[in-house]
Design a protein that fits this description.
heterodimer; A: 369 residues; mainly alpha; 72% helix; disordered N terminus; B: mainly alpha; two-stranded antiparallel sheet; 2 strands
């Protein structure tokens, strides 16, 4: 379904009289899979050379990465649990990208969402769990949504660059979190690691039956599919893509660009805020500085690797979740520092961006133009 | 405080001393970014460059015993990362902002990876010049212990200001930033100019990092930089790409960042974390005041993607 829509648009625009051969019809789709895939392989090769410089065997590296990410049912579950917040934070970058905006502040929205969700749970001490969980979802989404909407509003109404403002807001969000966790929201019992009080075991969202993977994964899948439908199958999404392609044309045909920016930024932030809620309600059980684990920043990478396509985000998030899940095994078996996952992510990111230069230039696919 | 005679004067004094100490990395990164942005490209990866610079300076200082070799190593590391940024950006259709984000991840990750064994050992630090020898007040003497790098940065700002206006190189960088077509018509390679400008920018940002690990706070750990690199990039925007304004803005930032610790030293601890966020809040506030949706910023290089 994805391929058909994406292709249909391309084929009409690029080659109206093209011979309907397989490569011609699916050239663009093949490119979208082949080029990022090649970039990934290239990055893994460079990372292999990098660890070889430190006297480790690259083949061991690849073996343990596979083992730690997808080798056993246990590692699959670990991978999927990490993919859940990544899907949600990646949407925080991918949705504004439809409007041509580069938002990199998903980490901030995640932290604010986590704070708001925890606050909601602590404010409703004697409610049934379902009510508390619903309140947490709403609070997390509104908290994170407003946070990114702030960046969008500053861009639209004050001309402040959204990339820089959203990144500055990450540091401000972290300061607010530390301030509240060390101050009014602090649990007096948490001595070494200041934290809020626990939301309570009954209010945790728990695991999908038969697995150890928490329900956050389902939240992520729903958000990604809903975003896909919104962007590619609604008038609103069409308007957003028009505005992203040519903002002057959008204004001339009378689209409310300001409204589009604010709505998309709210949805983007709400998605990252939901990731914060999931981390609280499924993993940590409370809010503390542990939440700033970098899911927001890895989400940026996921969005770019998925070429900002909400559906493609799902497999990419699982892949990147797998890489981060394998970090522990790499540390134990190969003695690699925990930062090696971050190095690999940086290399992948650089390769993926550099591979942008390849689109439309691969010999055997050139027939389509 | 041990010395009760100056009482609450401790706070402005600590802010003053902090402005000088804390501003140095801001100053170097913003001057470096200023050169890069004037050539028409933005390098958001300087956050990673700063951390890599801090790590390599500490490592080289520890291995060779010479902190100045460490500073040099930081500069060289920074210019290599700059070359990497410029190299990827010179491919067609590659977004320089996104490459910056990638290098931010890569630089910090690589620094943590390579710097793991450096957390324990102690490396020789950079010396400070004691400008407060005439005073008996301990806090004043502490505030006036000034590092040579700060003085170099203070001299560098007017030199760059002059160089942009009058030298051939300054003119070339500005031409590349204002109109790549014009530079190309004159027979110069825009990509080569931007490569050099990004490498020089990375060199300065790396030196800014060496100040972090070799003078203040003066050790290597993974929490060393908390967004100074990115704040300095934003700082260039409201300094209007003017090296002299970068100097004043860096000092203001240093002062803002020193406010939290200064208040804590006199016993005001509530809101410590909020005061720590002061530089980011200040950056955001000044960007909100100085930007406008109606016009592009005065002094903005026309080729810069961030001003749009």
């Amino acid at each position: 379904m994805t391929t058909d829509t994406a292709d249909g648009v391309e084929a009409v625009g690029v080659a109206p009289a093209a011979d309907p051969g397989f490569l011609q019809r699916h050239g663009t789709t093949i490119e979208y899979v082949l080029i990022p895939g090649a970039a990934l392989v290239g990055a893994l090769a460079v990372f292999g050379v990098f660890v070889a410089l430190f006297g480790k065997n690259p083949l061991d590296l690849y073996f343990y990465m596979y083992q730690g990410a997808f080798g056993t049912w246990f590692s699959w579950q670990n991978t999927l649990a990490r993919a859940a917040p990544l899907i949600l934070t990646a949407l925080c970058t991918a949705l504004p990208a439809q409007l041509g905006m580069v938002i990199i502040g998903g980490e901030g929205a995640l932290l604010i969402g986590a704070l708001a969700a925890t606050g909601a749970a602590l404010a409703l001490p004697s409610m049934p769990p379902l009510v508390v969980q619903l309140a947490m979802v709403c609070a997390g989404m509104i908290g994170g949504g407003s946070w990114i909407m702030l960046s969008g509003g500053l861009r639209q109404y004050r001309g402040v660059n959204e990339t820089i403002s959203s990144l500055l807001l990450v540091y401000i969000a972290l300061a607010i979190l530390n301030h509240l966790v060390e101050g009014v929201m602090r649990d007096p019992a948490s001595l070494n690691k200041p934290s809020t009080r626990e939301i309570g075991a009954a209010n945790m969202i728990g695991s999908i039956p038969g697995t150890d993977v928490h329900w956050g994964l389902v939240f992520g899948l729903i958000a990604a599919v809903a975003s896909y439908i919104l962007i590619y199958h609604t008038v609103f999404g069409f308007a957003a893509r028009v505005a992203g392609g040519n903002i002057r044309a959008a204004k001339i045909v009378g689209l409310g660009v300001g409204k589009l920016i604010m709505t998309i930024c709210f949805l983007a932030g709400a998605s990252a805020g939901l990731a914060g809620m999931v981390e609280v309600a499924a993993v940590q059980g409370r809010t503390n500085a542990n939440l700033a684990a970098g899911y927001g920043f890895t989400g940026i990478l996921v969005a770019f690797l998925a070429r900002q396509n909400p559906l493609a985000i799902i497999p990419v998030a699982i892949l990147l979740g797998g890489i981060s899940a394998s970090g522990g095994l790499l540390q134990r078996r190969l003695g690699l520092p925990d930062a090696s996952v971050q190095v690999l992510q940086g290399i992948i990111f650089a390769f993926v961006l550099a591979s942008d230069a390849l689109y439309g230039r691969i010999g055997f696919l050139k027939g389509k133009s | 405080m041990a010395d009760g005679t100056i009482g609450l004067w401790t706070v402005p004094l600590a802010v003053f001393g902090g402005a000088i100490r804390v501003s140095t990395p801001f100053l170097f990164v913003s001057l470096g970014e200023c050169i890069t942005e004037r050539s028409g490209r933005i390098n958001l990866g300087l956050e990673g460059t700063l951390v890599m610079g801090a790590m390599s300076a500490y490592g080289v200082s520890y291995l060779t015993g010479s902190p100045w070799l460490g500073v040099l190593a930081a500069g060289v590391t920074g210019s290599l990362l700059g070359a990497l940024h410029a190299g990827i950006c010179s491919l067609p259709r590659v977004n320089d902002i996104a490459v910056g984000i990638a290098l931010m991840l890569f630089g910090t990750g690589l620094a943590f990876y390579l710097g793991k064994p450096l957390i324990e050992p102690t490396a020789p630090r950079l010396p400070a010049i004691d400008f407060g020898w005439w005073s008996d007040i301990a806090q004043l003497r502490a505030a006036l212990r000034i590092n040579v790098l700060f003085l170099i940065g203070v001299v560098l700002a007017p030199v760059l200001y002059w160089a942009f206006r009058t030298t051939r190189w300054g003119l070339l960088i500005r031409t590349a930033g204002e109109s790549s077509d014009a530079a190309r018509a004159m027979g110069y390679s825009v990509l080569a100019i931007r490569l050099k400008a990004t490498m020089v920018g990375g060199f300065l940002a790396g030196i800014g990092g060496s100040f972090l690990s070799l003078f203040y706070p003066g050790s290597w750990n993974e929490g060393l930089s908390s967004g100074q690199g990115i704040t300095a990039v934003a700082l260039v925007i409201f300094a209007r790409w003017d090296p002299m304004l970068c100097l004043w803005a860096s000092l203001a930032f240093g002062g803002a960042a020193a406010l939290g610790p200064a208040l804590q030293s006199v016993g005001i601890t509530s809101g410590y974390y909020l005061f720590n966020a002061a530089p980011y809040i200040l950056t955001l506030a000044i960007m909100i005041i100085t930007c406008s949706p109606k016009r592009t910023l005065t002094g903005a290089p026309a080729e810069l993607s961030i001003t749009r």
